[in-house]
Design a protein that fits this description.
The protein folds into 3 domains: 109 residues, 3-Layer(aba) Sandwich (Cobalt-precorrin-4 Transmethylase, domain 1); 108 residues, 2-Layer Sandwich (Methyltransferase, Cobalt-precorrin-4 Transmethylase, Domain 2); 45 residues. It is 43% helix and 16% strand. It has 12 helices and 10 strands. The strands form 2 sheets. The chain has a 5-stranded parallel sheet, sandwiched between helices. Helix 3 packs parallel to helix 4 and helix 6 packs across helix 7. The longest helix has 13 residues. The model has no long low-confidence stretch (mean pLDDT 94). The structure holds S-adenosylmethionine. The site of S-adenosylmethionine (SAM) has 23 residues, from helix 5, strand 7 and strand 10. The site of S-adenosylmethionine has 23 residues, from helix 5, strand 7 and strand 10.
Length: 277
């Protein structure tokens, strides 16, 4: 019998499909990231089914038991606390194991925060990259951003509100002041809001951590943004010039390393050498 992947609301309890409700009502068992959380949803829709927990700390241990249930003909509905199971949530290992055991999981589509955020962001929707939560350590986070500097698609991240100020600062330093960002907050809830503007302004607007749940969207690289020199590169330029390297040598070296246009780097290095009064 099937393993259903049931999408659940990301805030507003009305965001659940008729099919999702039927599948939950008919499932032999519901595997939930947090059974207390899911019980509230089930109570709201007067659904009474047995629940079993499946979260990041017990997913591996649960797999054999759940596969045995599928083999014996039971149906399982997998849900997470919000949105799509397996998307920055548990379930991927179970999906893999089910496929390997010959059970094709059946998605029961519904809300997911990153798609809701993208559709209303005003950023291009034809090409995007969803990256889940960025690394918590600053070095790893910046390395990830550096690897994405030339990505033309919209970059979509989940981030905890208290880490939003530091994340925006990293985006500013790696991508430069003018990259557009959209901060989608509390989607489908009472205080839903969208902030949009250049990252330089976002750093000021979110100097204090915002409240609620957050999706951060970053405009993809454009021809113009690729020509812009990020503050981190400027620092290296200034450092090399201060160390005695000539303007043209500095521009050539940084162009070779970063792929930025040598002419722009040369102009900027000249300005740094001879700041206008
Ligand atoms: N599986 C979920 C999905 O499909 O969107 C994501 C789960 S992940 C553990 C939780 C993160 O998703 C939050 O920290 C936030 O970044 C984002 N998120 C979830 N609900 C949201 C909402 N209502 N508004 C904005 N962001 C939300």
């Amino acid at each position: 019998m099937p393993l259903y992947l049931v999408f659940t609301p990301i805030g507003n309890l009305e965001d659940i499909t008729l099919r999702a409700l039927r599948v939950l009502k008919e499932a032999d068992i519901i595997a939930a990231e947090d059974t207390r959380h899911t019980r509230k949803l089930l109570e709201h829709y007067q659904i009474q089914r047995p629940l079993i927990s499946l979260h990041e700390h017990n997913e591996t241990a649960r797999i054999q038991g759940l596969l045995a249930r599928l083999t014996s003909g039971e149906s399982i509905a997998l849900v997470s606390d919000a949105g799509a199971p397996t998307i920055s949530d548990p379930g991927y290992q179970l999906v893999r194991a089910a496929i390997q055991a010959g059970f094709q999981p059946i998605p029961i589509p519904g809300p997911s925060a990153f798609l809701a955020a993208l559709t209303a962001s005003g950023l291009p929707t034809d090409r995007f990259l969803f990256l889940g939560f960025p690394p918590r350590k600053r070095k790893a986070r910046r390395e990830l951003l550096v690897s994405l500097q030339k990505e033309p698609g919209v970059l979509i991240f989940y981030e905890s509100p208290r880490r939003v100020p530091a994340f925006l600062t990293d985006i500013l330093e790696v991508f430069g002041a003018n990259r557009m960002v959209v901060i989608a907050r509390e989607l489908t809830k009472l205080h839903e809001s969208f902030w949009r503007g250049p990252v330089e302004e976002a750093v000021h607007a979110f100097a204090e951590p915002p409240r609620g749940e957050i999706v951060v969207l970053i405009e993809g690289a454009t021809e113009t943004s690729l020509q812009q020199i990020a503050p981190a590169v400027e620092q290296v330029l200034a450092g090399l010039l201060a160390g005695g390297m000539s303007v043209s040598e500095t521009a050539r070296l940084i162009a070779d390393i970063t792929g930025l246009p040598r002419r722009e780097l040369y102009q900027r290095a000249l300005q740094l050498e001879n700041p206008s009064p």
